[in-house]
Design goal:
Largest sheet: 3 strands, antiparallel
Radius of gyration: 14 Å
Mean pLDDT: 81
Distance between the termini: 9 Å
Structural class: alpha+beta
Order of helices and strands: EHHEEHEEH
Number of strands: 5
Length: 119
């Protein structure tokens, strides 16, 4: 679970490509403020960007909330979409699951994001 008990830095609408870019930039800036290594920052910002883009493209838009945490020094990004949800969550996490004719990558991104934040 992504912690949301930190200080809220901002709430950002996710409606189009410009919004995805803005959230990516804010996440990158916050990683820089915390002294993240380049590889950590790149992985985290890429995960944030891909998840935010999925919210825009497949979730009917939504929002991203960015939180700052002091102990340990970290940030968290929570993206929520306006979509109907996934009818069969177990199937979505199974190998070979397809949505809209494409293999979904979001379970991989969830695992990647957790590795980037040290979970």
């Amino acid at each position: 679970m992504i912690p949301t008990d930190g200080v809220l830095i901002g709430i950002y609408a996710l409606i189009g490509d410009r919004d995805v870019i803005q959230v990516r930039r804010v996440a990158g800036r916050e990683m820089d403020h915390r002294g993240a290594r380049t590889v950590q920052k790149t992985r985290f910002v890429t995960a944030v960007s891909e998840i935010a883009r999925n919210v825009v493209m497949h979730g009917g838009g939504g929002e991203a909330r960015i939180y700052m945490h002091s102990e340990p020094s970290a940030i968290s990004v929570v993206c929520v979409d306006n979509g109907p949800g996934i009818a069969d969550l177990d199937a979505a996490f199974s190998d070979g699951f397809q949505h809209c004719g494409q293999h979904g990558a979001w379970p991989w991104w969830c695992e990647t994001a957790e590795r980037c934040i040290g979970r």
